[in-house]
Fold each of these.
Amino acid sequence: MPVDGNALPFWETKALEEMSSAEWESLCDRCGRCCLVKLEDEDSGDIHFTDIGCKLLCVETCSCSNYESRQTLVSDCIKLTPVEVRGLAWLPPSCGYRLVRDGEALRWWHPLISGSYATVHKARISVRGRVSALEDAVEVNDMVDHIVKWPTKVPKSAK
């Protein structure tokens, strides 16, 4: 928050493209929802979330265990940039990048508001306790059995 209490925070005054690296990274609430395996319906193009985590997802912290090398280690890992964020329809409704992109306020539990990543877990926004397995432990043909709806919803307690 601003020191003087009067100035608006950067996420309310800057376009995504104007943010510094540190500002951009701080928009991520480390919920881990974007690190869940997603399946695309070949016929409709619809994206379906699963409760399967990326092989690099730390299920306790809900963050990447090798963030700097993630795109080398995971071929389909998408690096979120302002251009990517503007074009991705599947970003969870609780995602800080999506909220700012859509001109919405960050929620009470977001670390930039609360001052702590613990509130992301308290509000049940994170994937903590909800990941059934990591991707390298599930056969590709079995992943459809892990499709879930909760990553596309915001719990009532988190609104």
Amino acid sequence: MPIEIESPEQVGYANIRCNLTESSVSDMPLAALGLDLNALILAYTDHLGKPALRERIAADGENLSPQDVIVTPSAAAALFIVATSLLEKDNHLVVMHPNYATNIETPRAIGCQVDYLRLSFESGFQFDLDQLAALLRPETRLISLTTPHNPTGVTLTEKDLRAAAALAEAKGCYLLVDETYREMNFAGPTPLAASISPRCISVASMSKSYGLPGIRIGWIITRDPNLQETFLAAKEQIFICNSVVDEEIALHVLEQKENILPPILEKNRRNFEIVKTWMEAQKRLEWVEPTGGVVCFPRIKPAADLHVDAFYQILNNQYSTFVGPGHWFGMDRRYMRIGYGWPPAEELIEGLHHISLALEEAKEKRKSRN
């Protein structure tokens, strides 16, 4: 996928002046945790995950226990485990589109039939239950949803989640909900999907909301003991267990979440207001205003007569500013994902200004070519 080849990690952070590509909050330095790891024994861990960590994760949902949780090396690994455990060549998947690559590419590699629950700009990227129901078949094995959604920042309501769960129950398939940004829903977190029904599978991680992508900790939650056994067997074949260091850091952060999350959410709110004010002044861009997460997905207006490739070339090469172009998500390059949770306010403001300048210069370049 282009998103992996063109990611800031591959481009090199030193080559980027304004990084608006990130889909997470600012990375947290280890020193900020005040955590002493010197007494830690670097042994194999419980294959399900550290019991105290699973207890903290399960505590966020009603009717959940630590036995319903498998801690994995990232949400990406969790999604891979779910897809490879549940899907076969003759199965059918319905997945939100656009979406995070792993939710699409792994099922496609398996050879499973894939239909997209397409979110359109014109409909406000809104979830449509009737559209979902129309896509289901007798061979549908899995429905894959994301909320808050990456890259659009739209969210599902509790009513949406319960309706989708009821549909999965009625059709005898499973509902996977990628909830990595759950705590960043502007209206407050919806219930953990796994708490709604045994047919629901929740996946999340420490990467996006806590700024800890470097420790590679995610999880799968399911109340179905048979699924749990299958997922654990898959994890053991791939990873055996998690890093004891990563689990210890994750547990420490979740134990302090009441102190750690509020300042993160406040920074997100301030940065979102910066983006919103900037968007209100744009003549060449339009958006669906996000209702959660730390990303938005504006697009260059169809009527804006400018050279799109030139826009990205100017933005990247002249201003050393990067966004997530639409092709990262299988969308037209007129779309761009702007991450506003990761950069400091000063970098965000400068980067947004560079986007405005690059749009203007791409317009002038179009004129000169005509």
